[in-house]
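Table S2 (text version). Query chain:
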Amino acid sequence: MGWRLPTVSEMGSLFQGAVSLTGGGFLFLETSLPAGHPFSVQSNALFWTATPGTDAGFPWAYLTEEGPNQASASILMSVWCVRSGAGPAGS
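Corresponding structure-token output:
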């Protein structure tokens, strides 16, 4: 079992979130790592996930301050690899 990209759900499980209503009436999801975590992550970082998007070329990514988003596969993003069990589709 080697290192792999996490699914969007696995990436979300690393963060804790809160939904709030902005002044304009929009819902906003704010996420952060839990207190005492051992990681150093810059705010507003964007990470690739292994979850394919609904549109070709737009896989799911995870923005640390907002949660899951579909993003263009041409955007430069960070990776946060995980290691546990079998990966998606048995890989």
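Notes on Table S2: The chain has one domain: 1-31+43-78. The longest strand covers residues 16-21.
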